[in-house]
Specification:
It is built from six helices and no strands. It is 82% helix and 0% strand.
């Protein structure tokens, strides 16, 4: 498995895509920084505790994985798949009721889940096709 991922990082399309995903994750990290500093509209201390916890966890995840993907580290690819599933898809589907404070949050979470699935699917296809 590790060797397959290592080979994939050497492929041109996969390498480019890893950098695109790294930029997207870095942007996500910046969004969490904006949330934490209260520059996002709602003061951070007025958001639900679970949102604050997830901001911190996802900030760390986004920044570390974005750096690893930018450097095309195989461990970062594994962390990307595992992290997206465990830190976003599972919580935002299984525990959705804890993340919805206003009805608009449902659309935001659904959009996030679909986006994450698409990002993972494209990477998986590139790895399988060795592109």
């Amino acid at each position: 498995m590790i060797e397959i991922l290592r080979e994939a990082t050497l492929q041109s399309w996969t390498s480019i895509y890893l950098r695109i995903v790294a930029i997207a994750l870095f942007y996500g990290g910046l969004v969490h920084i904006i949330n934490i500093t209260g520059l996002g509209g709602t003061p951070w201390n007025q958001t639900p505790t679970l949102w604050r916890v997830m901001d911190i966890i996802l900030l760390i995840f986004d920044l570390f994985v974005s750096l690893g993907l930018w450097l095309r580290k195989t461990e970062a690819i594994i962390a990307f798949f595992v992290g997206i599933i465990l830190l976003q898809i599972v919580p935002y589907t299984v525990f959705k009721q804890f993340f919805v404070t206003v009805p608009e949050d449902i659309n935001t979470l659904n959009g996030l889940i679909v986006t994450e699935i698409i990002l993972m699917a494209i990477l998986l296809i590139l790895i399988i096709l060795k592109k």
